[in-house]
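Student: Hello, beginner here. Can you help me understand the protein record under this note? Any guidance would be welcome.
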Amino acid sequence: MLGKKLVTAQKRGETRALCLGLGMVACSMMMYFFIGITIVPFYTKSVWTTETVCKVLKTNVKDKVFCPNSEDSQDEEIFPYPCLQVWVNLTASGQEVMLYQTEDTLERNPKCSYVPDKLENSKEVKARIETIASNFKKYQTFPCYYDPGGTQTNVILSRLYPSKGLLFAFLWPTLMFTGGCLIIVLVKISQYVSVLSAWQ
């Protein structure tokens, strides 16, 4: 009687462990799919792939412009802000080009190097842009990214999804997938050993 209870408890434990392993594998597959349709397209679409050194030539803060500068933008998303323009010397080619914060900045407004998030307080936006401008004047040389193919003549300060960020995004689903597969393999080994012991 006790042996039957132990066998029943063992089978229940194996079933739960197998369900856990299958669930981890399924969740990791969903995470892979989500990363594949969100982060990977932005990473592959970016042409600013080569890092170089940029030196600030001049910074300029123009009068207020409106953001975003796109035709499909809604009226409530448009707000005025000072337009910061930063021109740098590209070390790789020696050209004078305009600097943008990220790839998204160029798409939102190609006239400005920095596009702030929508804030209710215009003074806070102005103070932030002035701080960024002063930092560029203070730190004249810094790493930046350019397009080695030459399709984009401008440069960006940082990529939205760098290579390290992409690898980090794939790290967690990979660990979950590996753990789920390991649990499934251990359950199958345990079942095989149990059947082999019973047959002997």
In short: The chain has two domains: 50-161, 162-199.
